[in-house]
Specification:
Largest sheet: 8 strands, mixed
Number of helices: 9
CATH superfamily of the largest domain: Vaccinia Virus protein VP39
Number of domains: 2
Mean pLDDT: 93
Strand order of the largest sheet: 1-16-17-15-14-11-12-13
Distance between the termini: 64 Å
Strand content: 25-35%
CATH topology of the largest domain: Rossmann fold
Structural class: alpha/beta
CATH architecture of the largest domain: 3-Layer(aba) Sandwich
Low-confidence stretches: 1-12
Length: 387
């Protein structure tokens, strides 16, 4: 077996893929200038909420190597496979990565080992134009608190040599979990119809203070662990919990802020659409000894009516980047909810949702922004709404 040494990666931004890779578009902007640009974006979009108390943007704990999840795409040919990110502005061209300053210093050696193996086996990358080929995506997750890594190879069909593929990672002791999954659909996404554990443990774990979070191949977990700890703590402080609160946790993923505060409230009602995240949420509750929770799987706009309780002290809303539908907002607003803690990872759609909540009497009281995604235009903002 060929030994692949981890390449030397500088601590300062020296990325050979910048300007082509679509990952970190602000890498060439000094960090203080990035923060100023994000402050200006916030000021512009929060202008409709004149009475809102706007906290200062909280800088990132780490500017590089902060993400705990990345999805890479295969390209090139069977003889010369590429693994990387889409080119900026191009869906069909793949930048062949040797490193990633957003994810993990060790990923370059892992990607190269996979390229050597797939070239040796003459495995063809999938072509989203012709829908021919075999290798589609590579999903990689890391526990930032345990320093473990999970590999998920996504193929277009059954992988007869999957066992051999798993063995190539024996030289990487930090890789604790290897899967392969099948996506036979035409849509070019990394989600799998079937998943197979090839070696190692089924899940990774993250720790946030005293709370354990189990992370599976496809469950949702905030992509920046260290900033999430800060964000959840600030949100908990903002809620001023007494221990007697009834809380709705909508778009809850595999736990998130709801799991983080569950021991400090009376009862938690959780709704999440993705079934795997719901199953991991249930495991998280067991792992943390939490019993004061009801977990439902479904779309918020259709499932909220199944919760018979009418009155809540708080609703926690952490919708996807695309935001909430008007129907979902209406269903939430028709409940008797005193205050709402709203998480937004895209300020434009977040503000649209907040304005819609305003039609039902909710006012934006406070905004706390976090630079969760340095070297990109994105950030996360936590809003407190009251009526």
């Amino acid at each position: 077996m060929e030994n692949i040494k981890t390449p030397e990666i500088p601590d300062l931004p020296g990325c050979p893929h910048f300007h082509r890779c679509g990952g970190c578009s602000w890498l060439d902007i000094p960090y203080e200038e990035q923060l100023e640009k994000k402050r200006a974006i916030l000021e512009e979009h929060l202008a409709p909420f004149g009475q809102c108390v706007k906290d200062e943007l909280i800088p990132a704990v780490e500017q590089f190597y902060y993400r705990n999840k990345m999805e890479f795409t295969f390209g090139g040919t069977a003889a010369e496979p590429f693994i990387g990110q889409h080119y900026k502005g191009s869906f069909h061209r793949i930048e062949n990565l040797t490193r990633c300053l957003l994810f993990d210093k060790r990923i370059g050696a892992v990607l190269e080992r996979i390229r050597v193996y797939t070239a040796g086996e003459s495995l063809h990358p999938y072509n989203p134009k012709t829908h021919e080929g075999f290798l589609r995506h590579l999903k990689v997750r890391c526990s930032k608190t345990e320093d473990d890594m999970m590999i998920v190879l996504v193929t277009a069909g059954v992988f007869d040599k999957a066992g051999d593929f798993a063995k190539i990672f024996e030289e990487f002791p930090f890789i604790k979990s290897v899967y392969y999954g099948i996506n036979s659909r035409l849509s070019d996404i990394a989600d799998c119809e079937q998943l197979f554990l090839l070696s190692g443990k089924a899940e990774l774990t993250e720790k946030m203070d005293e709370t354990t979070f189990i992370v599976s191949p496809e469950s949702f977990f905030q992509p920046n662990t260290k900033m999430s700890i800060m964000m959840y703590e600030k949100a908990r402080e903002m809620m001023e919990l007494s221990g007697e609160e009834y809380v709705l946790d909508l778009y809850s993923g595999s736990g998130g802020i709801g799991l983080y505060i569950a021991k400090g409230i009376k009862y938690l009602y959780s709704i999440e659409l993705q079934s795997e995240s719901v199953e991991i949420m249930k495991k998280n509750l067991l792992a943390n000894g939490i019993e004061n929770t009801e977990v439902l799987c479904g779309d918020v706009k259709n499932t909220l009516s199944l919760i018979k309780r009418k009155s809540f002290d708080y609703a926690i809303l952490d919708p996807p980047r695309s935001g909430m539908s008007k129907k979902a907002i209406r269903r939430v607003a028709l409940k008797d909810i005193n205050k709402i803690v709203f998480f937004s990872c895209k300020i434009e759609t977040g503000v649209q949702n907040l304005l819609e909540f305003g039609k039902y009497g909710y006012k934006v009281v406070r905004a706390i922004p976090f630079d969760m995604f340095p070297n990109t235009p994105f950030m996360e903002t936590v809003f407190l709404l009251s009526r």
